[in-house]
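Question (not urgent): is this output format expected?
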Amino acid sequence: MVKAAGLVFLFIGSSLIGFMKSAEIKKRKNLLEDYKELILQISTRIGYFKEPIPVIFREIADQREGQTGQLLKCWLLYYEISQERIDEMWNKAVKDVYESEPLSFTDKQVLMKCGSFLGQSDYENQKKHFDMLNHQLDTQINDADEAIRTKGRMYSKMGVCMGALIAITLI
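Got this back:
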């Protein structure tokens, strides 16, 4: 009886590990999509309202939740306490907020690109940079989508199969 219960828990645990790994891959896509929405919102605010970046970030940060809201709040904190350039503060904020998230190295590099052009030129040039960043984010989102279709299924099925294999072996 105890052995059967142990085998059931082993199977369930192994399956959960596979499902958690699969969920991690899905979270990557959600993070990238949320970031893309943020970039669109920032671009729109810069283009239409022509407000200073800190004002835009403060207003958007109050509206957004999750990592993008934290990103802007973190940047605003750096803005208040340091005299660094916009890109340095942005990169630090991206590293702080997304450090433990399931993003690839390339994903994080793309997230940092926004800081390199914010406030550096007129709106037309910034718009070109925002368009290029949007295209790069689309590429990363498509890559994440493909990973969900392939690796996501593989991890969830592998967890179930490994649990069943170990349980059968121990019987």
